[in-house]
Write a structure and sequence with these properties.
The structure holds two protein chains of two kinds. Chain A is an all-alpha fold. Chain A is 68% helix and 0% strand. Chain A is elongated, with a radius of gyration of 25 Å. The chains are: A mainly alpha, B alpha+beta.
Chain lengths: 408, 113
C-alpha cells in the first residue's frame, strides 16, 4: 500500500505516503470497532488510503511537487481522480510493489540496509520487529532505515521498470536481497519461529510477484523461487513438537509440504533455461535432491557433492567447502569426510561457525571416537548463536555419553 | 509563444460507469500529451454545473445553471501556443468534442498599461 501511495506522491515524499497508510489503518481500527470488519478488509484499507491521498493532494495541491513523471496531472480536478484511481488499480499496485522493490535495492545501500528497507516498506514490519528478526538493536535498525530512506528520497522517482539495461543490472541486487530475506527466516538467529516463518513467507510473496512480471521472469528468478519452495517445504519438520531444532538426518519427512515440494521441482525445471548457472540454481538443485529422497538413506549424495563442486568453482567459500565435505562424508564414509574438512583452505574463518565443529563431531561420533566427538560438540555449543542452536548442540554433546568405546 | 484559454462547454451526462471512466481516461491522455509537449500552461479545473449568476447594478442573484446544458461552461485550462492556428489544432484533441461539447479557443488579451 505504501508502494502505491508513494507512486502518487513521489519517492521524496515517502514519509507522507507512510502517514497516509498509517492514517488508513487508524481509521480502520476506529470504524471496524463500531461496525465490524468489512467483507474485504484490504479493499477497504486501500480505498481509505486512496481517499486520504486525494484529500492531501487537494489540500496541498501546489505546496509540494509530487511524482515528477505524473507531471501536472495531479494539480487539476480534470485529471486528479482518474489518475489516482488508475494508480490504485490492482495491476498498477503490483507494478508499484516491483518498482518499490527495485528502488529499495539501491546500489548506494548496503545489503543489510536493502533488506531492512524491503521489510519496512514492502512488508510493513516495524523497526522493533526488524530488530527482532535480525537480533540487533532497535536504535541501530532505526538509524539504518532513516539513512536508507534518505538515499531513496535522493533518487526522486521510483525505479523505472521500463529501462531494460537498468532493470537487469538491478535485478541481481533484488535477487540477493530476497535471498538474504529468506535465509534470515530459514537459518536466522531470531528465537521466535513465528517471525522467521513470516520472513520466509514474505520472501516467497515478493519472488512470486517478480515472476509475474514479464521481465522479472528470468531463469535466475525461477531458480530462486524453486529454492524458496523446496526449503520452505521442509520448515514444518525443522522444529519438532518440543520446539527443538531437528537436523536433516532425523526430520519427520512425512511433515514435508508435498504441494510446495512439487511446485519447487517444477520451478527448478523452469529455471533450467539459458546458459547462466547461478548459485541459486545449485542450491535449489541440492534442495531438490533432498526433496526427492523419501528416506535419508535414499539421498543421492554423489549428486550433491558434484553440485557443491560447481559451487566451489562459482563462489568458493569456507562454508561451501564445509558443506561439500559433509556431503562427501555421507557419500564415502566419515573418514573421508574428516579428511575433506581438514583439507579446507582458510578453515580459520570457520572458527566461530558452530556447524564446523558440529560436523567434526558428527563424523568422529560415527567413527566411535565419542570423547573426541563430545569435545567438538562442546566447542560448537560455545559458538552457538541462539537458544535453539544451543539446545540442539547440547543434545548432540549429551548423546556422546553413555556409549562404550567401540560400540557406536 | 502566446497564451490561450480553452473554455469547454457541454459534458457527458449519460453512459455506464465504464464508459464514463473510459472518457475520463481520454482526458488524462490529452492532458498528458499537452503537458509533455510543453503546451499546458495551467491545468485549470472543471466547473460544477450548479452555481449562481450575479448581474446588473442591482447585483441580482439568479440561480444557475444557465441556458441549455450544451452552453454551460464546463471548465477551463490555459495553454501556450505559437499562434491561434496552433491553439486551434491542439484543441481538436479534446475529448469533449466526442460527446457533443465544444471548445472555445480565446487568446489572452494583453492589456496596455
Amino acid at each position: 500500500m505504501v508502494a502505491a501511495v508513494t507512486r502518487v506522491f513521489g519517492v521524496h515524499n515517502l514519509a507522507m505516503a507512510q502517514d497516509v497508510v498509517q492514517d488508513a489503518f487508524c481509521r480502520a481500527v476506529e470504524t471496524w470497532a463500531w461496525r465490524g470488519v468489512p467483507e474485504n478488509p484490504s479493499a477497504w484499507l486501500m480505498t481509505a488510503a486512496k481517499n486520504r491521498a486525494l484529500d492531501l493532494l487537494r489540500r496541498e495541491r501546489t505546496a509540494r511537487t509530487y511524482a515528477p513523471e505524473l507531471g501536472r496531472l495531479l494539480e487539476s480536478e480534470w485529471t486528479l481522480v482518474p489518475v489516482v484511481e488508475e494508480l490504485f488499480a490492482p495491476d498498477a499496485i503490483k507494478d508499484d510493489l516491483l518498482r518499490m522493490m527495485f528502488s529499495c535495492c539501491h546500489p548506494r545501500l548496503s545489503e543489510e540496509a536493502q533488506v531492512a528497507l524491503v521489510l519496512h516498506i514492502l512488508c510493513g514490519f516495524g523497526t522493533g520487529e526488524i530488530a527482532g528478526a535480525f537480533v540487533s538493536g532497535r536504535a541501530s535498525v532505526e538509524k539504518r532505515i532513516t539513512r536508507a530512506k534518505k538515499v531513496l528520497a535522493g533518487s526522486k522517482t521510483l525505479f523505472d521498470l521500463e529501462t531494460p539495461a537498468d532493470f537487469s543490472r538491478r535485478l541481481g541486487a533484488v535477487h540477493r536481497a530476497l535471498y538474504l530475506l529468506f535465509n534470515e527466516g530459514y537459518h536466522g538467529a531470531s528465537t521466535e519461529s513465528a517471525v522467521r516463518v513470516e520472513l520466509c513467507r514474505e520472501a516467497m510473496r515478493l519472488v512470486a510477484l517478480l515472476l509475474e512480471h514479464p521481465k522479472g521472469k528470468t531463469p535466475t528468478t525461477f531458480a530462486l523461487a524453486a529454492l524458496f519452495c523446496l526449503n520452505a517445504a521442509r520448515l514444518p519438520s525443522r522444529v519438532d513438537g518440543a520446539g527443538d531444532l531437528r537436523s536433516l538426518f532425523d526430520q519427520d519427512r512425512s511433515l514435508w509440504d508435498r504441494p510446495l515440494l512439487s511446485e519447487g521441482l517444477i520451478l527448478l525445471e523452469l529455471s533450467a533455461v539459458g546458459s547462466k548457472l547461478t548459485s541459486y540454481h545449485l542450491e535449489a538443485a541440492i534442495a531438490a535432491v533432498h526433496a526427492r529422497a523419501a528416506k535419508v538413506e535414499d539421498t543421492d549424495w554423489g549428486a550433491i557433492v558434484s553440485f557443491y563442486d560447481s559451487m566451489m568453482v562459482l563462489h568458493p567459500s569456507p562454508v561451501v567447502a564445509l558443506n561439500r565435505a559433509i556431503a562427501f562424508g555421507q557419500h564415502q564414509g566419515p573418514e573421508r569426510g574428516l579428511s575433506e574438512i581438514q583439507a579446507i583452505e582458510d578453515s580459520d574463518r570457520l572458527a566461530s561457525y558452530p556447524f564446523y565443529f558440529a560436523a567434526l563431531g558428527e563424523f568422529e561420533l560415527r567413527l566411535g571416537r565419542w570423547s573426541i566427538a563430545k569435545g567438538h560438540f562442546l566447542e560448537a555449543l560455545a559458538q552457538a548463536r541462539n537458544p535453539m542452536e544451543r539446545k540442539f548442540l547440547a543434545r548432540r554433546a549429551e548423546s556422546c555419553q553413555g556409549q562404550l568405546p567401540g560400540c557406536p | 509563444m502566446s497564451e490561450f484559454t480553452y473554455l469547454f462547454r457541454g459534458r457527458q451526462t449519460t453512459g455506464s460507469p465504464e464508459e464514463l471512466q473510459k472518457h475520463m481516461q481520454k482526458w488524462v491522455a490529452w492532458f498528458q500529451d499537452l503537458h509533455v509537449k510543453g503546451h499546458l500552461k495551467d491545468p485549470g479545473n472543471p466547473l460544477d454545473p450548479t452555481g449562481v449568476v450575479v448581474s446588473g447594478k442591482q447585483k441580482t442573484v439568479v440561480d444557475g445553471p444557465f441556458a441549455e446544458a450544451k452552453d454551460v461552461v464546463a471548465g477551463h485550462i490555459m495553454v501556450d501556443a505559437v499562434d491561434l492556428a496552433q491553439a486551434v489544432e491542439l484543441s481538436k484533441g479534446c475529448p469533449i468534442l466526442e460527446v457533443g461539447g465544444s471548445v472555445e479557443v480565446r487568446p489572452i488579451q494583453k492589456l496596455m498599461r
